[in-house]
Amino acid sequence: MSELFLGVNIDHIATLRNARGTNYPDPVYAATLAELAGADGITVHLREDRRHIVDRDIEILNETIQTRMNLEMAVTDEMLDIACRVKPTYVCLVPEKREEVTTEGGLDVAGQLEKITAAVRRLSEAGIKVSLFIDAERQQIDAALATGAPYIEIHTGHYANAQNEAEQGAELKRIAASAAYASDAGLKVNAGHGLHYHNVKPIAAIPEMHELNIGHAIIARAAFEGLEKAIRDMKRLMQDARQGI
Ligand SMILES: CC(=O)[C@@H](O)[C@H](O)COP(=O)(O)O
Ligand SMILES: NCC(=O)COP(=O)(O)O
């Protein structure tokens, strides 16, 4: 089975910093520590309201990240201009609602095909690899393919928020079937949102998964155990799942 990568999302280091208007804890420092602990990439979501990651973070991280930056952003002219100037390795296009506490679902690629295809083209022409954050639905996978984006990230929020085992099992099935369908069609398949230490293994065991992006649970655990241990423990769970342990 191919290797499974971990992208560590450091947004919530910035949430903590911004809560007091201080210059600490610094997400730049967190990214360096995350890489030393084995993160394969650093994910940051530059929200339109700048509630956590801010422009300064993106600029400095772009200079200091040793692995690769995965910039999550809404499909707006402002964000496209920033991405094309900064040129992160990856951009993941996500839906965004100003009033939401966190991302509530996948991007409706099928419903905005023209707009998203144009964004994918602009980013690709700037040398950026584009991923589309979508729900585990064939219609959205087909639309993602039509845009020319090489990657999708399957939204695992419904799986993470399932109210009982049956519901979670059904979500897992849907995600696994979608990963296989997308991979067969030639897309690289990532996943993320709401994954934590107790629900990550079944997702990590899906053979087509290329990378998992995990943030909130890792940063929360880091408050008690330190960032390095939090990342190493998550990677170990992912690797165990991959080996059927
Ligand atoms: C796009 C996505 O899946 C989110 O997980 C996001 O990256 C996390 O940021 P928020 O906590 O601001 O929703
Ligand atoms: N794209 C998902 C991500 O980056 C992290 O989401 P979460 O683990 O903070 O829910």
Q: What tags apply to this protein structure?
A:
binds 1-deoxy-D-xylulose-5-phosphate, TIM Barrel, pyridoxine 5'-phosphate synthase activity, Pyridoxine 5'-phosphate synthase, 11 helices, eight-stranded parallel barrel, 17% strand, 245 residues
Task: Give a brief description.
The chain is of the alpha/beta class.
The outline comes out as globular
Q: What is the CATH top level name? A: Alpha Beta
Distance between the termini: 14 Å
- The CATH superfamily is Aldolase class I
How can the largest sheet be summarized? 8 strands, parallel, barrel
Architecture, CATH level 2? Answer: Alpha-Beta Barrel
| Low-pLDDT regions | none
Q: In the CATH scheme, what's the topology name?
A: TIM Barrel
> How many structural units, i.e. domains?
1
If you average the pLDDT, what whole number results? 97
Instruction: Calculate Rg over CA atoms.
Output: 17 Å
According to DSSP, the number of beta strands is 8
Number of alpha- plus pi-helical segments:
11
Order of helices and strands: EHHEHEHEHEHEHHEHEHH
List the helices and strands and how they pair.
Layout (H helix, E strand, L loop, with lengths): L4 E5 L1 H10 L6 H10 L4 E5 L9 H10 L4 E5 L3 H10 L3 E4 L19 H13 L3 E6 L3 H10 L3 E5 L1 H4 L4 H20 L3 E5 L7 H5 L4 E6 L1 H10 L1 H16 L3
Parallel strand pairs: 1-2, 1-8, 2-3, 3-4, 4-5, 5-6, 6-7, 7-8
Bound molecules: 1-deoxy-D-xylulose-5-phosphate and the ligand NCC(=O)COP(=O)(O)O.
Q: Care to describe what's here?
A:
By secondary structure, the protein is α/β, with parallel strands linked by helices. It has a single domain (35-42, 70-243), classed as TIM Barrel, CATH 3.20.20.70. It is built from 11 helices and 8 strands. Strands 1-2-3-4-5-6-7-8 form an 8-stranded parallel barrel, surrounded by 8 helices. α6 (138-147) links the parallel β5 (129-134) and β6 (151-155). It is globular, with a radius of gyration of 17 Å. The site of ligand LD2JLWAY has 13 residues, from β8 and α10. Pfam families: PdxJ.
